[in-house]
Design a protein that fits this description.
Helices cover about 55% and strands about 15% of the residues. By secondary structure, the protein is of the alpha/beta class.
Length: about 170
Amino acid sequence: MPRIVIAGTSEVSRAQLSRLLASSGYAVFRLCASEGELRRTLNECEDGIALMAGIQPDDIAADFGERFQFLLIGRPEALSACESPRVFKLAYPCPGSTVIGAVEMLSQLHAMRLPHRSGGDKALVEDAKRLLMDRYQIDEPEAHRRMQRYAMAHNVKMTDYAAQLLQGGSNDG
């Protein structure tokens, strides 16, 4: 299940969205009250879904659109001000079932973008992440980011890099 971040300038709207998602079985990773807080949170996560109300998403979607799905919930004038094709939009007010339907669709899109690894490959990557976490006293998202950055910079698969790390034959990135 993707990490879900809710960002909005209104504490009431953040709480309502969080309760709505929780009632449908979705766990919310974090609530953000500002664009800066949202950016810091998205930097912490490797990928996920961001629901926004009262925050203009164009620059954020441009910066994080490769890793995140975005849903903007707002009044028609706020929606028309958003020009990013990476942002899905819902006009407020809308029924909770519509919001849940949109989150379900974004969850499916998120799952389609993820690399598919076998059970053994997943275990290999998880073991390598734990090695980096222990070695550098970092959290799981940071270990994943380091592995991902190294693999991309050196044009190797994450699973191949994980195997190298575990065998002690590669740089930590």
